[in-house]
Amino acid sequence: MKTIKSTDFDLNWNNILSDYITAVNWSSDGSTLAMSSAAGEVKVLVENELIALQEVTNTSIDRLAFSTDGKFLAVGGQDGKVKIWSTSNHQLIATLENAPAWVDKLAWSPRKNLLAFSLGRYVQVWDADIQEIVVTLNFDNSSVLSIDWSHDGKFLAIAGYQGVKIWRSHEWDEDPYLFSIPSASVAVAWSSDGKYIASGNMDKTICVLETDLIANAKQAEPWLMHGFPGKIRHLAWSKVTTSKKEPLLASSCGESIVIWEKQDDASSGWGATVLSNHSDIVEAIEFAPDNLMLASAGAEGWLCLWKKAKKVTQVLQGAKNGFSCVAWHPQGHKIAAGGQNGEVLIWYKGNRGVGFA
């Protein structure tokens, strides 16, 4: 590990849950941090008060997410249940029973209170406003491996064996657009500006396709990136663009992180920059909301902050047996991370002597 002198972010809050932290997530206004564990706990931190929504059940909660308007918190896990709480009073408002299916993927639409979640080969979409399932989508080829909404909520992408199927959210009954992959898509992500969709694949490649092709139902060869030592584990797009007015795409595979930037000449595709500092598997990557800083959480116990997605400026620690997840505060001045021993930590930028609020 490189020696880093910068101390921009200081530890501000920490706690320990009963088991491996499976997810941490901030509400859209940044007032609440939600966390879940492999022991089944679901807790929220509000104004420095830790509130238990669900105590230990000994059945893992694998995913959690706030609705875009911040009114709802949804979780899913190994018991096949999707639970939704109201964030205004922390009351459980809905439980969707899906056993024996394992709910390990879920995502809210960025424009409406529509929650998509995986059930084996299917994805269901639940409307929080009417509290009903509005559609069940059949991926068919395999179990669902990843899901993501486009930035405007017009498209829902579902990934698995042989590619990504993309449905229009206002035409659920229409056949989906097929983003074909020779092997399997294990991670799918739309860029924040809506221009691109990326697929990280089992065959050690990444494919990137322009959204306009999908909107116009046109088939075309995607940009193809290859040369990775193993399958792509994670993808993350920058929230802001570079001087070229293009977003960056970060990918992780094993200990490695590769940053992709679209070249001026379209025929040249995307240029790659390899980031090396981790000595164990990179468990999570995420860009800051207001700049090109990338956070990467490693299984060796290092949370690396990469300035402009190029150079490590700080390495945060505190998870003895490694980090498992990471989440930037929507204003970019806090970082939350979970550890494999149940640690939850929050760092604050320039917070010496300042409280959590």
Q: What Rg do the Cα atoms give?
A: 19 Å
Note the gap between the termini: 32 Å
Please give the count of helices.
1
Report the helical percentage. under 10%
Low-confidence parts:
351-357
The CATH topology of the domain at 239-351 corresponds to Methylamine Dehydrogenase, Chain H
Average pLDDT level: 94
**Major sheet:** 6 strands, antiparallel
Fraction in beta strands: over 45%
> Within the largest sheet, what's the order of strands?
14-15-16-17-18-19
Count all strands and give the number.
Answer: 30
Derived from helix and strand composition plus strand pairing, the structural class reads mainly beta
The level 1 CATH classification of the domain at 239-351 is Mainly Beta
**CATH superfamily of the domain at 239-351, please?**
YVTN repeat-like/Quinoprotein amine dehydrogenase
Overall geometry = globular
Which helices and strands, and how do they pair?
Layout (H helix, E strand, L loop, with lengths): L8 E8 L4 E6 L5 E6 L4 E5 L2 E6 L6 E6 L5 E6 L3 E6 L5 E6 L8 E3 L5 E6 L2 E6 L4 E7 L7 E4 L5 E14 L8 E14 L5 E6 L3 E6 H5 L7 E4 L7 E8 L5 E7 L2 E7 L7 E6 L6 E6 L6 E5 L4 E5 L3 E6 L6 E6 L5 E6 L3 E7 L8
Antiparallel strand pairs: 1-30, 2-3, 3-4, 4-5, 6-7, 7-8, 8-9, 10-11, 11-12, 12-13, 14-15, 15-16, 16-17, 17-18, 18-19, 20-21, 21-22, 22-23, 24-25, 25-26, 26-27, 28-29, 29-30
Describe this structure as you would to a colleague.
- The chain has 357 residues and is mainly β.
- Helices cover 1% and strands 54% of the residues.
- It has one helix and 30 strands.
- The strands form seven sheets. The chain has a six-stranded antiparallel beta sheet with strand order 14-15-16-17-18-19. It has a four-stranded antiparallel beta sheet with strand order 1-30-29-28, with no helix packed on it. The chain has a four-stranded antiparallel beta sheet with strand order 2-3-4-5, with no helix packed on it.
- The radius of gyration is 19 Å and the shape is globular.
